[in-house]
Amino acid sequence: MEIILKQDVKGLGYKDDVVKVKAGYGRNFLIPQGVALLATDSNKKIQAENTKQRSFKEDKFRKEATANAEKLAGVTIKVGAKAGESGKIFGSVSNIQIAEALKNAGFDVERKNIELNEEHIKALGTYTAKVRLFKEISASVNFEVVSE
Questions:
Q1: Fewer CB atoms inside 10 A, N or C side of the chain?
Q2: Are residues 30 and 74 in the same domain?
Q3: Strands 18-20 and 2-5: what pairing?
Q4: Range of the domain at 108
Q5: CB 76 within 8 Å of CB 144
Q6: Are residues 78 and 57 in the same domain?
Q7: Are residues 43 and 95 in the same domain?
């Protein structure tokens, strides 16, 4: 079954992609949730026209994302956390704190676009995170967890 995605779906594709999925997944989940449309001839023509009009805007976003990726590569941000004397953090550092620190540094990144290399960060130190800026453009950001 071919469908047209109306929004990004992790592991499946990006908005306006035409993808093949199993019939049950498309009919029972994606289409009722409003995430996808059935890829009929008329829907494909509408999607092609929308894609053509949107290509100019995407080029602009791609250039901005590439420039931001170059800027982010050289930046090390500091994330403050309450820690004990042994250097162990009370709680853990998540992508929410990293998004706030990036916003304070002048980069507006949504928290859902930040992937941590480690599942739980519970100690002071230097770590890296992957920040997705555009479809295939991402940057690695170094961040240091420091005691407040």
A1: C
A2: no
A3: antiparallel
A4: 69-147
A5: yes
A6: no
A7: no
